[in-house]
Each structure stands twice: as structure tokens, then as C-alpha cells.
């Protein structure tokens, strides 16, 4: 992460002000509301190239550390480096360490076939059948399917960066044009796909999570979402070498109110991974469980409004809001910290984590003279985030 360390500055930062094309809009200081006292951490609101984000300033071993704020990251990282360098210049900081001259991104988000989740929320449209592979690993199976089914739109989900880089390299080398890749949790991704549009969902050799079963991809919620997006005759295909995972999924699927399953052992596929080849040579069993969709589902209707319509008494929130997490069946909310903007009455930042237990969202709510909004942009419109937002409104206005 780009940052600088300095031992003093000859000037205090005043806001609003500008330096080298970077706007410094306001400074917010942590209230540390869990102990009802101040701590010396600041969020500095900056704007560069029409992108708004925060820098974090905090004392460190009798020096000062200025770094990018993790929650409000922006790309390319050069924008953040420029903002940090501009701050140091603006306050005439005596820098003792910096890495803002050499910082590289591993994956460039503007690659043709690599999409962020916002693309699937706002822009993704296709008349083709969709097939999805969850956790594609080396990509051998996904590449094979895409080459042999050019009229199908494939979506590959993976959270392992080297696997994404490897697949994208092969997509370019082999000139494959019907794969889109997204780094996102598959348990939540399905909410952004229309009903009855998917022909197949492949889940090959997922991590079995025997000691942490709550982290497994298969659950009642995941399977129900899979059945919603699958068209009639579409399949959710599990392939695993874990007998425990096979038993768990079989028990889960046989107790569903809809859909039918088929089971196979040591089925040969046209393409297999190097690990599967090794396991077969060792005589290890490979289990297949296919779930077939047998009925159409209604389109999901996510009616949402992420605005805060009522005025928020920020100065009162500091005194009254609870530090205890709010936990519901489908979502949770935890207020992490509060930052005050001393130049503006009834104004500040609320740092909050909320939404799904599997994919929580970290956001700032910016309150300016009692008017509130999410800083940078609204949360993704998942059902958990929508429910959490509605509860947040109650908490902040009662």
C-alpha cells in the first residue's frame, strides 16, 4: 500500500485547499466512540481526477504515517500516490520514508475480459445462454467449455489472483471471446443474474471446509439461488474428491422441495485438472452430484433506495449509538468508528460494516449539516445490504 512517513511538517493542512491538481476537502478526526474519547487518527477527504477517497493520517512511533484508506480504494493506484505526494508537498513534510514512487497493481481492472461486480449489476446483458464456473482454478475446464461452446456466454468466478491472471493470459493466447471473469464471492453473485437464464453451473473441487462448514459454497440459500437462475433442464454440477463434502451436499439436495438429483462416481470428462488425474492414478474416488432445475422461477425484484431521507442529528449519535453489533437472520450491522468534522456542526463520518455474513460491506456514511449519504457510492443492491440499510436508517434517525 502506498504511504509516506514523516517526522514533522512546517505547515498545517487547511481545508478546503488544493495542490498540484489534488483537492483537500475536509479533515475528520476519530471520536473512538467505543471508549467515548478521542484518538489521533484522521481521515482526509481528497479529490483527484474526479475520484473522491480518503487518506489516513495517524501517529506512529513519534512520527506520522500517511497512507491510503482501505475502504475507499480507487484505481489506478497512481491517483492515490499523487494525492499522498501532494499532501506532503502542501504541508512541507520532512519525509523519512516513502514508497509512493514504486507501487504496481497486479491485475488491471480495465482488461477486456476481467469485469468488476458493478458491471454485472449495471451493464451486463446477453441474449446467449449463460454458464457459470465457480472457483475455476487453473482454468482448464472453463477454457475447454468456452472453446467448444462458442455460442454460450461463460462467466468464471475466482478469488485467487494468480488463477485469474493465468486464465486471462490463456484467453488472450487462445483468442477466446466468450468468457468473462469476476473476482467475487459466488454465494452472493447469483443475485445479479436474471432468473431462468443459466444452462449450467459448475462447482468443481471446491474447498471442503470440513472444520469450518459455514464457509462452504453449498448451502440452502446458495442452492435456491442456483435453482432460480437455472432454466428448465439446467444443472448445478458438483464434482469433488471429498467423501464428507459429497455426503453433506447429497443430504442437502435430497431434502429440497424442488429439483431432482443424479449421482455418479469416477465419471470421465473430456477435460480434467492435473490434480484430478493424479487422484485417479492413486485410486481416489471422484464424486459427481447433479441437481436439475424442473420449473421456471419469477424474476428477482430488488426494490431498493440507498438514500437517507430524514435529517440525522450527528452530534447526538456520538452520545447514544450502540457499539454492539445488530445481528439479524439475514444480515448484520456493526458501527466501527465515528469521525467528527470540527469545521461543520452536526457533521462527520460513520464507519460501518454491514450486510451479508459471507460478504460484508465496509462503508462510510458522510453526514454534512444533518444530510447523510454513502461516501463514494452506494452499496451493491444485494438483499442483505438492502435490509441492513433500512435498519441503519432506523438506528440513525430514532
From TrEMBL:
Entry GO CC: tRNA methyltransferase complex
Record carries keyword Transferase: yes
Binding positions for S-adenosyl-L-methionine per the UniProt entry: 133, 158, 185
InterPro entries linked: SAM-dependent_MTases_sf, tRNA_(Gua-N-7)_MeTrfase_Trmb, tRNA_methyltr_TrmB_bact
Highest taxon in the source lineage: Bacteria
Pathway(s) this gene product operates in, as recorded in its UniProt entry: tRNA modification; N(7)-methylguanine-tRNA biosynthesis
GO-annotated molecular function: tRNA (guanine(46)-N7)-methyltransferase activity
Translocase found in the keyword field: no
EC number: 2.1.1.33
PANTHER family: 3-DEOXY-D-MANNO-OCTULOSONIC-ACID TRANSFERASE/TRNA GUANINE-N 7 - -METHYLTRANSFERASE, PENTACOTRIPEPTIDE-REPEAT REGION OF PRORP DOMAIN-CONTAINING PROTEIN
Function: Catalyzes the formation of N(7)-methylguanine at position 46 (m7G46) in tRNA.
The name this protein goes by in its record: tRNA (guanine-N(7)-)-methyltransferase
Organism: Halarcobacter ebronensis
Gene name of the encoded protein: trmB
Amino acid at each position: 500500500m502506498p504511504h509516506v512517513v514523516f517526522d514533522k511538517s512546517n505547515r498545517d493542512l487547511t481545508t478546503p485547499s488544493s495542490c498540484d491538481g489534488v483537492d483537500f476537502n475536509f479533515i475528520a478526526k476519530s471520536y473512538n466512540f467505543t471508549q467515548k474519547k478521542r484518538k489521533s487518527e484522521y481521515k482526509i477527504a481528497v479529490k483527484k481526477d474526479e475520484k473522491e477517497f480518503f487518506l489516513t493520517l495517524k501517529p506512529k512511533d513519534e512520527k506520522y504515517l500517511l497512507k491510503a484508506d482501505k475502504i475507499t480504494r480507487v484505481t489506478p493506484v497512481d491517483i492515490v500516490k499523487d494525492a499522498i505526494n501532494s499532501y506532503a508537498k502542501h504541508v512541507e513534510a520532512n519525509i523519512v520514508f516513502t514508497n509512493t514512487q514504486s507501487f504496481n497493481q497486479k491485475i488491471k481492472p480495465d482488461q477486456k475480459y476481467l469485469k468488476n461486480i458493478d458491471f454485472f449489476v449495471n451493464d451486463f446483458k446477453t441474449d446467449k445462454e449463460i454458464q457459470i464456473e465457480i472457483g475455476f482454478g487453473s482454468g482448464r475446464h472453463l477454457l475447454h467449455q468456452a472453446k467448444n461452446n462458442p455460442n454460450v456466454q461463460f462467466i468464471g468466478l475466482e478469488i485467487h489472483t494468480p488463477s485469474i491472471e493465468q486464465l486471462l493470459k490463456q484467453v488472450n493466447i487462445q483468442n477466446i471471446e466468450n468468457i468473462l471473469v469476476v473476482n467475487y464471492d459466488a454465494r452472493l453473485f447469483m443475485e445479479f443474474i436474471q432468473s431462468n437464464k443459466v444452462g449450467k453451473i459448475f462447482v468443481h473441487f471446491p474447498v471442503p471446509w470440513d472444520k469450518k462448514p459455514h464457509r462452504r459454497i453449498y448451502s440452502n440459500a446458495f442452492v435456491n439461488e442456483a435453482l432460480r437462475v437455472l432454466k428448465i433442464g439446467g444443472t448445478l454440477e458438483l464434482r469433488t474428491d471429498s467423501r464428507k463434502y459429497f455426503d453433506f451436499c447429497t443430504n442437502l439436495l435430497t431434502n429440497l422441495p424442488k429439483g431432482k438429483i443424479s449421482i455418479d462416481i469416477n465419471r470421465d470428462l473430456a477435460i480434467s485438472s492435473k490434480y484430478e488425474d493424479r487422484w485417479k492414478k492413486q485410486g481416489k474416488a471422484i464424486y459427481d452430484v447433479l441437481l436439475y432445475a424442473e420449473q421456471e422461477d419469477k424474476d428477482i425484484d430488488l426494490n431498493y433506495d440507498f438514500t437517507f431521507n430524514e435529517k440525522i442529528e450527528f452530534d447526538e449519535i456520538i452520545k447514544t449509538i450502540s457499539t454492539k453489533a445488530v445481528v439479524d437472520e439475514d444480515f448484520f450491522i456493526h458501527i466501527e468508528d465515528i469521525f467528527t468534522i470540527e469545521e461543520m456542526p452536526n457533521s462527520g463520518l460513520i464507519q460501518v460494516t454491514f450486510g451479508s455474513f459471507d460478504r460484508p460491506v465496509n462503508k462510510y456514511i458522510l453526514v454534512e449539516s444533518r444530510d447523510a449519504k454513502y461516501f463514494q457510492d452506494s452499496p451493491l443492491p444485494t438483499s442483505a445490504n438492502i435490509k441492513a440499510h433500512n435498519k441503519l436508517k432506523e438506528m440513525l434517525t430514532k
